[in-house]
Each structure stands twice: as C-alpha cells, then as structure tokens.
Design goal:
Shape: globular
Number of helices: 18
Number of strands: 35
Distance between the termini: 46 Å
Strand content: 15-25%
Structural class: alpha+beta
Strand order of the largest sheet: 2-5-6-7-8-16-12-11-10-14
Helix content: 25-40%
Length: about 775
C-alpha cells in the first residue's frame, strides 16, 4: 500500500473496533524464542531511505548498490523502485532525510566505456545497468547486472570486498570518484582537493574533500585488485583524459577506468580500505583486515557477527511477518552510529583536527540525535550496554573538542547542525541516569557555555538562545521554527540539569530544571495548542493548528510538525502539561482529538509528516511518544489500544514497510521497544512506560554480562489487547511503568491480557513519574 493510500485509510479510523483487527497469534509460549531473519529490503521503498548493502554492526564501511543520487528518495543512494544500478559505493546513510556519502563508486561492466551514469529513466544513456537476481543478507549482497556481470559484496569494519564474475571477453571497471549525492540546493564546488594514483604494485589510492551536507568532510581510500588490468586510463575534471601512461591525476571530479582484455574466467576481486584521516589509514585497514583474497571467509565472518547481534532479541509467537519486521528493525537499529576510527586510533574531531584514541574507546560518526535520543539510544543502553558506553564516552570527547560544544548531528568529523536543539546532552544525560560511567564533568564547561553563555558560538540548530534566556521562549518573528525550538531547548535544559548534577554544579542544575518549564510559554491555555508567539508577547492571531507556521509559504514555526503535533511534544513534565488542559479528563479528551482529527495537511507540509492517525504523525519523531501519554492521565487502556494499532498498521515486511524515514534506526527502535511492551517517554528519567502488551507471546532479550530479560504475554490473542495484570519476577506489579535499573538486571516481565480494559495502572500511585515526581 502506498503512503498516500495508507494515510487515507488511517484518517477515517478511530479506536473503536481495534481489537478485532489485531493480527497476533493465540498460541501460548510453547517453545523457546528464536531470532528472526531480517529482510534487508524493508525500508528501501516508500520513504524509508534504507539501503540493502552489507555493513557490520556500527561499521565504518557500508558497501552497497547505488540506484540514484539526485532526488529526496535517493538519500541512501538506493530505492527499490528505480530499476537500474549505477554501481557500488563504500559509504551510505541509513534512513536519513538528507543525503550524503556514496564514496568510491565501482562500476563493473562491458562494452564501450561510458563516463556518466545517464538518466534514471534511461539507463542505456550511461553506465547504469538494469539488474536481476538481487539478494541481500546481513553482511552480503549479490546481483546480476545486464552486462552479464555477477556482482557480490561483503565487508569487514573498515574494508569493502567485491567479487565480480564476468562473461568471457573484454570488460572494464570504472571507479567514479566524482560520484556523490546531488541536490537542487547545492551550489558552488562540491568536490575539491581530489587525487587518484596507481602505484607500481598495482594499488589504487585516492583522496577528496566533499562539500555536500557535511561540508568539508574528507575521504581517503586504498584499493587492490586480484588481477592486473591490461590498461588503465585516468580522467580529470570534465572527464578530460589524462596523458597516455599517466599513473595518476589531480583535480576535483576524477575517474579511472581499468580495462581487461579477457575479463572472464576467474572472478575479479577488489578490496578497498577507507579512512577519514589519510591514505595511510586506508592502507592500514587493508593490511589489518583484508589479508589475502578470502571473499567467502570474509562473508562467513560477517554473517557470524550479525547472527550474534541479532540473537540479542528472540521472539516466539506473532505472525511470520511480525517476526520478520522485528528482525529487520533490529538490523537497522544496529547500523549507526558508525565507526570513525582508523586501526591506529586516529580520527578527525569536530575541530577538524586529527586526534588519537584507543581501540577500547573508538570514535563514531552518524549521530542523528534529534531522532535517535527518543528510542534508539534507550534501546542500545538496554541491549547494547557496552556499545552504548562507548558512544557516551565518544560524545563526551566530541563535546570537549567541538568549537560549538554539545554535538547536534555530527557526520564524518563535521557538525552539520541539522534539525534543532543539541540533543547529545539528552543522550549523555540518559546514559548518566542509567549508570554509564564517563567523564561528564569534562564535558560540563562546554555544555554550560551552551546553556548560559549568549556569546557562545551558535549553529543553525541553536539559534534564538538569547531570546529564550530573556523571554522564556523563542519568538516567531525573530527565529524560524520558534515553537519547536522553545520546546526542545526546554527538554535539553532538563537533560543538562542531570549533567550539571553529575559535575557538582548544583545551582546550575536547579536553574536548568526551572528553565525546562519554558515549554509552557508557547502553549496558549486559552485554545489548548502550541502556538507561535511574538517578541512582544502576543500570539499569532489567525492561528490554525494544521498550518506549519504564521507565514505558511515562507517560514515554519514548527520543526517537521504542525500545531497539533507540537502540542504534545513535551516529554519531561507530563503532569504539568496535563494541568494546562484542566486535568486528566480534559487531557484525555485532547489526546483523543489528536488521534481522531481530520488528517488534512497544508500544501507546504514536508514529506516527513506521514503515517497519520488523525493528526498524529507516526512517520516523524515529534509526537512518537504521544500514544503513551494516556498512561499518565489514568487511561492506560487507550495507550494499549493505540500502540498495538500503530505496531500493526505502521510497519510491514515489505520495501515500503517503514511509514517514514527510518532515521538511523529511530523508527525501528520504536517498533522494537513497543513490541516488547514498554517505551521511554522521557529517556532522561530512566523510566519505561508500559504500552500494549507485547506483540509476541514471549521475547527473550540478552542484556549482556549473562543477564536476560524475558517478556511473556499470557492470553495473547487478537481479541485480547488489554493489560489485565503484570507480574515482575513472579510477584504482582501494580505500577504502569518500570525503571531501567530493574529491567537491566534481568528477570521476567509477565503481562496477562484480556478482551476488555481493566483498572491496571490507573491509580495515581501507579502512574509513571514525570519531572521527578508522581501525580498528586
């Protein structure tokens, strides 16, 4: 079903009649849970923006096919509907809404040499090739190209491995070092300081600087081939051929063609190491991770590595499709952040300088924290605690090294300043609250500067801080996306208070907690909506909650949201939010209205606002916690019904099976945690709120260090979606939430389900804490 059709279906449905439509099994947990098999093509259609090529968990190399590089749905370089492949590049982004990477494109083909890919709809005009027999498994990819070449790919952490089986006769391999993501907004020089060189021993090396999204990032590679080409031709800018016999070329947009008079027979193997530091780092990757020509051994090793990671969550029950969705989501949740350290520990910091670390404390890139602080990082603290600790200590280092302090969206040693807020502090505060050890005090001076010093350098995502300090909100006539900025700056205040406490800055912590209530200053109690406000204190008079801003065609007041969605953005002071609506009943009525309002959007709505249930947009992050808010207002059965509905309607085991961008695993993490029966509405609090009973009859979660969490759903049936009671380690559990500290120790969480709502979790004493306290 297309996104548009799915939107139309969801717009006209309410909560009534949900239970009868739930596709869950009726079987009791009669066997040991097992790991599912992921479908790597889930998310490669629609607007999921994932890619099917091989990578190791959190690996540096993400090798894979590129089908397009010049439209929004080509952000990852691959889209399931495209029909032709340009070649195979060594770096990709998974699920992002902005494109970059696609470094070192390798094109194996036959016939006349063509130096341009040609149009998407007319592959015969360039080196694009139609394809068949496409297969993707964790750590391996295979496809048959129309030239007759069988292409196979696999990886280590820092090296990509290719195996190309050519038909008999001549063939060639083009390395297009000018290939990159292109966008209509790109201006000026996009690639510079590029070089390609062929050494006497046949190693091809290259370097370039790219000015796309992460402006100024560098990539270096070292490539070896198993067979010596008969001829080599370099091409410089404008595809000008270098002099005959040239062993290299410099410029901006470079290419090299490797010709084989007889390409058939034994496959041509290629292995490529990459580095952001220098060519020496790329060569070291080859030396340390790619000795010999052992493609099948590398493939088997990658498969074993992935199986160990996918075994972290095993399930029993549910439908075959749901088990595939779960395994696919887990796979996508383990792709980023990505390794950014050379084998010798060197990496590029956000100050653009080369730094040194150790093998035990690697540096990482691809932190999509506006998205991932909400569910991905909480998932990793639970099921990947050692890796989460590495990410935490890396973010501390990056905070110290960055000229602008707390990272926002760092990619390949560059602060992209994408989205709003500086949510690395949320990730750090969550880790701190959950007991992950790191030198938080070392990061505090930079964090404090962002929190209090109006002269501290701003980036796009931190604009309007001075107004926020002085007025308690960001005014819509001074800064774009002002409403969302006010709300998200307030959440970062809440997170920074935790870090201030960790650094011993108690007065700062108190000031930040008080200031974190600033979110209230953009919610107009007279109309009950988050509403743009101007510097003189007045509100946007002609307010329309469907619109994205008070100047619909020029400026947004919300970030990838509208007034409906932003009204429920608050995560840390839910009881304060409830009070603004007059108490539980008024708040529940408002939440109901969110999920049942007409699903109309203005013409200028971004494509990210997808997966509508009323005005709730599951395909984007701002209100992904909203269904869980019923639990705070004494109506947890409504949370249970809506979460189950979202689980079963927003995800499919199909290429368009992710309703919006996967956003570096955030959409996948929402599914995983919600399918287990709990979700971190406020990650910094260290608390999970119970949602729908588990989607599966039983789930077994490996927590590391020999600890296991088992989640069981008794009475799991399509007509029984409601929690009747909960037991924790065999004892009755009345609270509608559980702390991370409890789950992380391991044990058994047992839900008993039934066909009708129950009183479980409705008492005020059993509702989740918020802003550090229970409801009164």
């Amino acid at each position: 079903m297309t996104t548009a059709n799915r939107r139309q279906v969801l717009a006209g449905t309410g909560l009534a009649g949900l239970a009868a439509a739930l596709p869950v099994t009726n079987a009791a947990a009669a066997q040991a849970p097992v790991a599912g098999k992921p479908d790597l093509f889930v998310g490669t259609g629609g607007h999921g923006h994932t890619y099917p090529g091989p990578s190791l968990p959190f690996g540096m190399v993400q090798l894979g096919p590129d089908t397009d590089n010049s439209r929004w749905d080509a952000c990852s370089g691959y889209h399931q509907d495209d029909g032709s492949i340009m070649g195979f590049s060594h770096t990709h982004l998974s699920g992002t809404g902005i494109g970059d990477m696609l470094d070192v494109l390798v094109v194996p083909t036959r016939g006349p040499l063509q130096l341009k890919p040609g149009a998407l709809g007319k592959p015969e005009q360039g080196y694009r090739q139609r394809f068949t027999d496409e297969l993707a498994e964790p750590g391996y990819y295979r496809v048959k190209l129309e030239s007759g070449v069988l292409a196979e790919l696999t990886v280590t952490e820092r090296t990509g491995h290719h195996r190309y089986s050519f038909p008999q006769g001549p063939g060639h391999i083009l390395v297009d070092f000018a290939h990159m993501i292109l966008d209509v907004w790109d201006k000026g020089t996009l690639i510079d300081e590029a070089s390609l060189a062929l050494s006497a021993d046949g190693m091809l090396t290259g370097s370039r600087r790219v000015h796309r999204w992460a402006k100024g990032r560098r990539i270096h590679f070292a490539m070896q081939l198993s067979r010596k080409p008969d001829r080599v031709q370099f091409f410089g800018d404008d595809d000008a051929p270098a002099l005959a016999g040239a062993k290299g070329v410099t410029g901006n947009r470079l290419k090299v063609a490797l010709f084989f008079d007889q390409a058939g027979g034994a496959p041509i193997l290629i292995k490529t190491g990459i580095s952001a530091v220098d060519v020496a780092g790329a060569k070291a990757a080859l030396d340390g991770e790619a000795a010999g020509w052992q493609f099948d051994a590398v493939r088997r090793s990658a498969a074993r590595t992935w199986q160990a990671e996918l075994d972290r969550i095993r399930v029993d029950g549910g439908t075959p499709e749901q088990r595939t969705i779960m395994a696919s989501a887990l796979y996508h949740a383990f792709l980023s952040p990505t390794l950014f350290t050379d084998r010798d520990g060197r990496y590029v910091g956000l100050d653009r300088k080369v730094h040194q670390t150790t093998a035990a404390e690697p540096a990482f890139s691809t932190y999509s924290m506006w998205d991932t602080y909400r569910a991905l990082h909480p998932l990793l603290t639970l099921v990947q605690p050692d890796k989460a600790a590495q990410f935490t200590r890396d973010l501390v280092r990056q905070t110290v090294q960055s000229p602008t302090g707390s990272p926002v969206w760092p990619l390949q040693g560059v602060e992209t300043a994408c989205m709003i807020g500086w949510h690395s502090v949320s990730v750090l505060a969550e880790a701190c609250a959950k007991g992950i050890k790191a030198d938080y005090a070392a990061a505090w001076p930079q964090i404090r500067s962002r929190a209090f010093d109006r002269n501290f350098p701003d980036v796009d995502s931190t604009l309007g801080r001075g107004f926020y300090y002085d007025l308690g909100f960001v005014p819509a006539d001074k800064t774009w996306e002002s409403v969302s900025r006010t709300q998200e700056y307030a959440y970062d205040d809440w997170a920074m208070a935790v870090l201030a406490d960790a650094a011993g800055a108690k007065a700062d912590a108190a000031a930040l907690r008080k200031r974190s209530l600033n979110y209230r200053n953009v919610i107009d109690p007279k109309i009950g909506f988050a509403r743009p406000r101007f510097a003189d204190g007045s509100w946007w008079a002609d307010y329309d909650p469907i619109q994205l801003g008070h100047k619909p065609e020029k400026q947004r007041d919300y970030t990838e949201a509208n007034g409906w969605q932003a009204t429920f953005l608050n995560q840390h002071d839910v009881y304060g939010l409830i009070a603004l609506f007059g108490g539980d009943a008024g708040f529940v009525t408002k939440l109901d209205a969110l999920f049942t309002a007409p699903s109309t959007l203005p013409k200028n709505a971004p494509p990210d606002i997808t997966g509508l249930v009323g005005q709730y947009a599951h395909g984007n992050e701002p209100d992904q916690h909203a269904a869980y808010l019923y639990a705070y207002a004494g109506a947890p059965w409504k949370t249970q019904a809506m979460v189950r509905r979202l689980l079963t309607e927003m995800y499919k085991a199909e290429p368009d099976g992710v309703i919006g961008n996967d956003d570096c695993g955030q959409m996948s993490a929402w599914f995983i945690l919600s399918a287990l029966g709990f979700y971190p509405v406020d990650p910094v609090s260290g608390v999970y709120v119970f949602g729908s009973p588990p989607l599966f009859d039983a789930a077994q979660v490996d927590l590391g260090q020999g600890r296991t969490l088992r989640v069981v759903a008794k009475g799991n049936a399509p007509a029984s979606p409601y929690v009747q009671s909960v037991r924790w380690n065999g004892k009755p559990w009345t609270r509608n939430w559980i702390a991370h500290a409890d789950l992380a120790r391991g044990g058994e969480l047992e839900f008993t389900m039934g066909p009708k709502p129950s009183s479980f979790g409705t008492a005020k004493a059993d509702r989740p804490p918020s802003f550090g306290s229970q409801p009164r």
